[in-house]
Specification:
The protein has 567 residues and is of the alpha+beta class. It has 16 helices and 23 strands. Helix 12 packs across helix 16.
Length: 567
């Protein structure tokens, strides 16, 4: 699940949207009044296109070959963990600035905010120098303020397609959900893939969407995330996956889904908000150069939110690489196509991941922000434990979880997980101080480690990394959660990397996060106890730490009405 999936949007950021819960209840009561007049276009023309087929003729492709030769690599694919917001942002910026032929981006969500403004401006500049830009977005989040991202389609050499679209106005997400309630099963199926590919030579995948909260500069909640930069042969597989989705019948050219009036509205810059000096003083400022704002893609991003330093792209010539065999694990587009909700066993990315985990000999380390195992996965964990396999799980606490509905599902399994000997850890929401582990939530321009904190205002940390490390020799990093939504409803993509170096580095990052930024759950007289790490405000707790009474009550109310497969 993500912050704005249909189930999570009830309580999604900004923080806990209590009003949204009431609106959702009202929407259900109005279902019978919906006429269903909005519909998708028929006889859609989708010109087929594919990835650039000669990556070795580009500077990026030549750099890959040069590094492979110089480093004596036996494998044809190289990898670099992007375990901080600085690395995540600078690597994407480097790919944009280095691309000569093509940039292919596939995302569940791109939010219209300051950090995205830099990347969108970079994509615009690349298109203007002749780079073909293809942007494939899941349609669910392209409403309200985030619809402004679609402005990029007005640039020459830029194409935008929207996957599994919803009919109706883009004025607000709520309005689109209401007008689509008649087709709730389809709404629940979302394209959750994340790919960022340059010249079919280098690419990035992982759990991170694009937006301030994913780059450590949001003033309310920031995600702890993990990506991997890949180069070489494996990127061809990533591009092939992108092409399958881009050319699928569920991918609609953007211009067919937005009316002429809507297009004109999107062209009009919204009024600039009045600057609030006190708010700006406490908000981490992205490293955007003021000069980049002279022809803004997102006109509601104002110069008051920036500082003068230019963001620095990653030096792709010098970053350490691990060369290793790898496979792309992916769901096919048809997983979220029309039809019933049943998915054949063994056909999904999560099914394949579970089969890999079942072959573990010593240890499995699971990082999943939304962890709702379900009965079959619990049985598998039992078999693995019976063989002596150590299982460790890092997931969100209630306080750090941006989707309380998902937490309600996870909470059903906690006692049984701990009782079978699984080491269960929950992320702290308060990450004040230094957390030396994966995905530091510090803003990419702030130079801080740990949770974003400036002045008297602190933002909440929320785990968003998605990875599984098996016997410290296999690393699976991608967009999937270990829950039934990722298994049965959303499409996902991940890299399976057979590398002791990558696996051990990822495990070290997770261990550092656990040591300083997570609670360990234990059982005392059949009751759960949260053991606090060093630096926490308390030593032990017997109830959800850091969570408000209101939030605890909300989860109690949600739990009876939240089936596992919807979370």
């Amino acid at each position: 699940m993500e912050p704005n999936t249909p189930a999570a949007c009830l309580t999604s950021p900004p923080h806990l949207r209590w009003v949204f819960v009431l609106r959702w209840m009202l929407a259900i009561s109005l279902w019978s009044l919906i006429t269903g007049c909005a519909s998708l276009p028929d006889n859609v023309e989708r010109p087929v296109s594919s990835a650039f087929n000669a990556p070795d003729q580009t500077p990026l492709g030549q750099l890959v070959q040069q590094r492979r030769t110089q480093e004596g690599a036996r494998s044809d694919s190289g990898f670099r963990l992007l375990d901080s917001v600085g690395a995540a942002f600078s690597s994407r910026l480097a790919l944009i600035q280095s691309a000569q032929r093509s940039l292919d981006l596939q995302y569940y969500a791109i939010h219209a905010d300051a950090s995205t403004e830099i990347l969108l401006q970079g994509l615009r500049d690349a298109a203007r120098r002749g780079v073909r830009v293809r942007l494939l977005l899941d349609d669910f989040n392209t409403a309200g303020e985030d619809a402004q991202v679609l402005r990029l389609a007005f640039e020459p050499n830029v194409e935008i397609r929207l996957f599994n679209p919803l009919p109706g106005s883009r004025a607000s997400l709520m309005g689109r959900v209401i007008t689509s309630l008649k087709d709730m099963p389809r709404i629940q199926k979302r394209m959750h893939n994340k790919l960022f590919i340059a010249d079919n030579a280098m690419g990035i995948t992982g759990g991170r969407n694009l937006g301030d909260a994913y780059f450590g500069t949001d003033d309310k909640s920031n995600f702890v995330d993990l990506d991997v930069l890949a180069m070489g042969r494996i990127v061809r597989d990533m591009s092939a996956s992108f092409d399958r989705y881009w050319n699928d019948k569920l991918a609609y050219p953007m211009e067919l889904l937005v009316s002429a009036q809507d297009l004109e509205e999107l062209r009009k810059p919204p009024p600039a908000p009045a600057a609030d000096p006190s708010r700006l003083a406490n908000k981490p400022a992205p490293n955007i150069a003021p000069a980049t704002l002279t022809s803004s893609i997102l006109p509601d991003i104002t110069p008051t939110a920036v500082v003068s330093a230019e963001p620095t792209p990653m030096d792709l010539r010098r970053i350490p690489l691990a060369w290793a065999p790898a496979l792309l694990m992916e769901d096919k587009p048809g997983k979220i196509g029309p039809g019933d909700d049943e998915v054949d066993a063994g056909d999904t990315l999560v099914d394949g991941l579970l089969q890999l985990m079942d072959q573990a000999r010593q240890e499995v380390l699971i990082i999943s922000p939304y962890f709702v195992p379900g009965a079959a996965m619990m049985e598998q964990f039992g078999r693995m434990r019976a063989r002596g396999v150590r299982i460790r799980v890092l997931t969100n606490s209630l306080a750090s979880n941006d989707a309380p509905a998902a937490h309600a599902g996870y909470a059903r399994y906690r006692k049984d997980l701990v009782a079978m000997g699984i080491e269960l850890y929950e992320m702290r929401a308060d990450q004040e101080g230094t957390v030396g582990g994966m995905g530091s939530t510090a803003g990419f321009g702030s130079g801080r480690a740990g949770g974003s904190k400036s002045g008297s205002s602190a933002s909440r940390a929320s785990l968003h990394s998605k990875a599984v490390i098996i016997d410290k020799r296999l690393a699976v990093i991608g967009s999937m959660n270990l829950d039934l939504r990722s298994q049965l409803k959303n499409s996902e993509v991940a890299l399976l990397i057979r590398s002791t170096a990558v696996s051990q580095e990822a495990a070290r990052q997770v261990d550092a996060t656990i040591a300083q930024g997570a609670y360990r759950l234990e059982l005392e007289k059949s009751q759960l106890v949260w053991r606090a790490p060093p630096g926490a405000a308390f030593k032990d707790a017997r109830s959800e730490p850091e969570a408000s009474t209101k939030l605890k009550l909300l989860v109690m109310l949600i739990a009876p009405f939240a089936p596992d497969e919807m979370l």
